[in-house]
Write a structure and sequence with these properties.
The chain is an alpha/beta fold. It has helices spanning about 25-40, 55-60, 65-80, 110-115, 145-155, 180-190, 210-220, 320-325, 330-350; strands at about 20-25, 40-45, 85, 90, 105-110, 120, 130, 140-145, 170-175, 195-200, 225, 230-235, 240-250, 260, 270, 275, 280, 315. The protein has nine helices and 18 strands. The radius of gyration is 21 Å and the shape is elongated. The two termini are about 35 Å apart.
Length: about 350
Amino acid sequence: MKFALKCSPGQKIERRSERVAIIGAGPAGLGAAGYLICKGFQADVYDKLPEPGGLMIFGIPEYRVPKKNVRAGVKELIELGVNFILKTKVVADEEVHAEGDDFAESKVYLEDLINKYNAVLIATGTWKSRNLGIPGENLKGVYLALDYLYRIYTSELDYLPKSVVYPTGNRVAVIGAGLTAVDAAIEAQRQGAKEVYVLYRRTINEAPAGKMEIQGLIKRGIKFVELTNIVEVLGKDHVEAVKLIKMKLGKPDKSGRPAPEPIPGSEYTMEMDTVIAAIGEIPTPPFKDGCCGIKLTPHGTIDIDQKHRTTRKGVFAAGDVATGPSLIGKALKNGIDAAMAIEEYLLKGGWRE
């Protein structure tokens, strides 16, 4: 996977004095680093994980994104002069927890980076799954999908012991129908679950992962239950069952898809011993709203203009932390676009009004 699209190792590049700090070594951060280093700027990439790549290494399965390809692209960035400061968490006035904090051996303050560098790019992604927001979601055996996957892949890479992997029961319910839900269902089956159910409140036609991905699950023996929504997780201390309600499709909602509507009196239960919530990811900026003069939107993304400029001069944002969850290619392009805006700022100045 190539992150430096404008140059190659060995190519003569006229170096400039301006330095840019990039927070986050996922696709957006790596794409930005590749563009900036090719343009002669020094790019320092900060990440709390033990190697660059973000979710491409620690949250997405090998069959979807081969890790050797990501590592080859990172190796090229290093050869070009990109500096990676790993196992380092960037914090603000109050620390915000997210996956990967296990590896942070040091921390640096965002305000210090802003004062130290000519520009800062925040590209920390969406490292947290949404909670179900229903009774019983705190029972043992209920997991957030990204956390579930992160523990599996991190242990398989020998960065963490296998004891950190959550135990997977015999009957697993995965809630959602995006790519993360697909990955969680496959991993649950791989971890030894005898029956895996993917429960979705719309139909296969509206599944964010796409019809082909869902059909692939069905071929694996994973059951796809559509027009069904979870309303409660049942059990005393551990998951014992899930309470569900049947749905019907109504008029299109803001997403353009038919809105799922519950059918009164259609509740039923299914015995389960594991529930994995995969109903979407939320942005994980390294600060809370307003810190360091940087505002967030009502959706939790970083407030940026068309040139990726935040409400703090010299600070930019890109990737999922600014746009919300997206695909790797879009995040990569978004990072490159932000790097182009940083180049313009460093050469011409100016800021949003």
